[in-house]
Amino acid sequence: MTDKNLVQVAPYVYEIPASYRQDMRVPARLYADEEVLAQAREDRSLEQLINTATLPGIVGRALAMPDAHQGYGFPIGGVVATAVEDGVISPGGVGYDINCGVRLLSSAIDADALRPHLRRLLAAIDARVGSGVGASGSLRLKQKELRALLEEGAGWAVRQGYGSREDLEHTEDAGRMASAEAGAVSDRALERGLNQVGTLGSGNHFLEIDEITEVCDAEVAAAFGLAQGRICVWIHCGSRGLGHQVCTDAVRAMQQATAKYGIRLPDRELAAAPFSSPEGQHYFAAMSAAANYAWVNRQVIAHLIRQTFEDVLTGQVRNVHLPMVYDVCHNIAKVETHEVDGRSRRVCVHRKGATRAFAAGRSELPQVYRHTGHPVLVPGDMGTGSYVLVGTEAAMRETFGSCCHGAGRVMSRSAARRKVSAQELRAELEEKGILVQAGSRAGLVEEAPGAYKDVDRVVNIVAQAGIARRVARTRPLGVIKG
Question: Over 90: is that where the pLDDT of 447 sits?
Fold first, then answer.
């Protein structure tokens, strides 16, 4: 890849023309500044972006957000839309952690009032919410209950007493993909999912108590229930072992389907089937079920956190209620209607490490956010902070209503383990006033701030490119890692 092939088409927007490689069907676009562009050259993310531009039925452009980095088949931070009638669906465009996503809870609690109770609160949350590889939760489901959960989504959890109807109104798609079919999920995936509802997992998953340190758009922040100086709670996790197994099963089946339908691809990790084929529909139904599982998981975790706030803080601070701001997917494929080349088309939008950034007026928005656009939740690293953004009309035109999903890794987990000392990292964070509850030293150092891009830089790129607007910035006070 040379500068001649990578053309800057607008500020913070670079494009590789479809003529770059014979098998490309559309251009490939990267949102970046010079530093992010240099980082993209250091792994296979640009090559993977170009490869996604070869998918049958792809429309518009293959896209990569500024947090993009190398993934399985697709770059993490990639967005691809394929035509429903003649395009493909690819598990690599969703990822192994189906509906890994973020939920944000707001509060009326002042950060200064919370600080004296923070260490005790973190320990209590950590004791109540299971975390780590293979962790089990307090829910013990029967097969019949799990199958109902997979098809009913977050509404199932609310009916069991975990949260309220208002939570569903503040969740993407009300916490349910209607295309889910429990029968499409393998027995092995069901087995892995039985005891993991209400658990955090490991890797980059976290629970955070943050202070809202900056409000950038007062009107929209007020609509989202965010106020400077107050605390909020971030929940980042996904579909656990069940979702991983669904993807594992699908990749195996799709590799056979790719050959069956004569699909030629430059990377076997892009394995795909026509969206309308039996294989494509089977994966979509199973993926949707795993997405519903993830929403239930975050719904139950939110309930457990609320219970813990009440147990620890009642009588210590005023108003311990934690209303929902929003819950967004990061790894998902959705059938949506977008304008492509001047006409309305139904497309399957793959967002892998990317999030919806829908502007005001879209029918998918909950009524409460119909006039603003929905919150776009962008967590950063545990030593820096996170952002709440809102989608724009430019995003609807240019990125299928999509935006970045976080800071994005620049250092592998193994490299972080070699370079970072857990003891020194913990001391550095506590010196900044950030308390950490971590399940293991390895898990802590793998998520060190230096392993990630600068979230301020990433957010500046999407804001300057016009595909999202800043609403508020938050800073960690307490972090729980699996």
Answer: no
- Cβ 350 vs Cβ 82: under 8 Å: yes
DSSP 127-163: HHSB-STT---S----HHHHHHHHHHTHHHHHHTTSS
CB neighbourhood size of 86 (10 A) = 11
- Out of 244, 303, 374, 405, pick the active-site residue: 405
Residue 350 annotated as catalytic: no
Measure the CA–CA gap between 247 and 299, rounded to whole angstroms: 22
Distance CA 281, CA 180 (A): 10
Q: Is the distance from CB of 83 to CB of 274 less than 8 angstroms?
A: no
- 58-69 and 28-31 strand pairing: parallel
Torsion angle, alpha carbons of 242, 243, 249, 254, to 10: 170
Q: CA 198, CA 367: separation in Å to the nearest integer?
A: 28
Is residue 76 over pLDDT 80?
yes
Rounded CA separation 53/47 (Å): 10
H or E element in which residue 424 lies = helix 422-431
Which ranges of 399-469 would DSSP assign to H, the alpha helix?
Answer: 413-419, 422-431, 441-446, 455-465
Compute the chain's Rg from CA coordinates.
21
Helices assigned H by DSSP within 194-342: 218-224, 240-260, 278-313
**Closest-CA residue to 201 (of 121, 108, 288, 97):** 97
Q: Which residues pair with 348 in a beta bridge?
A: 82, 335
Taking the mean position of all CA atoms in its chain, how far away is CA 373? 18
Over residues 144-182, the pLDDT tens digits come to 999 999 999 999 999 999 999 999 999 999 999 999 999
pLDDT reading at 399 higher than 70: yes
Locate 400 and state its tokens.
Answer: 């299928």
For 290-304, write each residue's pLDDT tens digit: 999 999 999 999 999
**Vertex 248 angle, CA 244 and 253, to 5°:** 145
Question: One-letter amino acid identity for 379?
Answer: P
Interval 402-422: pLDDT, tens:
999 999 988 887 888 888 888
Q: What pairs with residue 375 in β-bridges?
A: 390
Interatomic CA distance for residues 340 and 305, integer angstroms: 42
